[in-house]
């Protein structure tokens, strides 16, 4: 109640102070799928305010990966691409396609919202309702915004650690096409193609890709290679009905098959995953552009099946499906030239089913669950003094099982000295209802309570030497209460929660503890001489348990130290070469911190050369020093591998 009152008071004060309306102000676009200039301009961001904004007006830490940066990285998986940004690390039980957890600022993987073209990708049937980024390949992506820190006011209860907004490419010329192909180590191949065009009335694009690799053993000491194949397609269509009204549809589909190993042993097991994302929307600009509106429907469908051929009689070991339906309205109104209101309503319906057939019970019934939540949100952004932009917002969420909650968020950005100096600060609250898997799966617990969060951050960005050097520092702090964790049952336990109905289970989800995370992000970029660019980031994170027997212990698989450093030189002949180093500090495989996973550093080498205006050849050597390392204890990681590719645009 106190949290809601403080937040309501902050926003109400700002609203009452708003000046009179202006007559000629245009509202920012009500867009969450991308920003104008996405192909190379990093000064405009969308995710922080759900509208297109100059980055110097944003009070939160944001990293933007534009299309040139994405192509230059030569990354195949979005996970590896995100890991090059500050405060982002991951853990994966094998190669590309296996289960992957993405951590931002030490938060749990399911505390990060992942969007593609504005649609949330969380899977209600997955563990704790998060998104497994293992199947997410770079594909036709043109832009990624990584918003760090709690963002529940605008993006819902799951956005505690941050938001990753992925935008697929949108054509800007009457006709455009592209094709790329690469091959390399471990019999890896990746083929991608796209075609599209834009006219005064219609903008369209379709793209597809296929990736295959023989891989390596998911188990650290295994001998059998675990491969992965993925076929994907995406498309978008926008039709301009009038100068002020347009309709659009977007879709992304992928189908993957990954081999994986059982616990502590080689295994012939494999999994299949199908993911479908659909968005349909209507955009309308009213009052001569002062009031922009978007009405949309989003749908996600994730189907997963695991098989073990060694169990000939009952090969299927897991079967799950999760679906989300989301209706939403968003409006952006220009109150004056310097005051903008963003507001909206959302209604989400989620359902899941999951089962684990066994030899003893091959026809085990599905465990099912469904939930709904309705939300209203509002945000006011105002430039209250030259260069000083203040943002305040509220979210009211009514969950069918956990009732109504009100959250608040405030932030400020102060751009000084012609934007050479930018000061940022923000405070936000978070609330996350338990996921369907936590409530209704074979490990579920219907008695769970919601998780609650408070977080703040403050930072400064400084440009030197006429923009040739840029540096920033951000401190952050987050506290969590009632955080949900998996609790292991003692073998043979007979209590009603470890053995419901007299049937023993290995564990269940419960509100175990409080946690806290605090740290420092340092980012720098320099262009000391023409053609040379040096970039680096370092993050120090204390992500710890704050209650219970393990108070003060580091959260599992969260490193305290994390760093990236790269140097790129573009030679006079057009050749571009890059050396990139990534360092991940020591982690622990358990919360008692008795089982450690060693720190490691990897070195990647990359090069590209434009043969002509439309053709480019590129290549890379991943893990050039052939470092032997782990992200999860006893699970394998790729050794040295060389890859060569060709990219064409027409």
From TrEMBL:
The keyword Signal applies. Residues 1-22 form the signal peptide. Pfam families: Plug, TonB_dep_Rec_b-barrel. PROSITE patterns: TONB_DEPENDENT_REC_2, TONB_DEPENDENT_REC_3. It comes from the Bacteria. Residues 228-623 form the TonB-dependent receptor-like beta-barrel domain. GO terms for cellular component: cell outer membrane. GO terms for biological process: cobalamin transport; monoatomic ion transport. The keyword Ion transport applies. Keywords: Cell outer membrane, Ion transport, Membrane, Receptor, Signal, TonB box, Transmembrane, Transmembrane beta strand, Transport. Belongs to the TonB-dependent receptor family. This is Vitamin B12 receptor. It comes from Caulobacter vibrioides (strain NA1000 / CB15N) (Caulobacter crescentus). The lineage of its organism: Bacteria, Pseudomonadati, Pseudomonadota, Alphaproteobacteria, Caulobacterales.
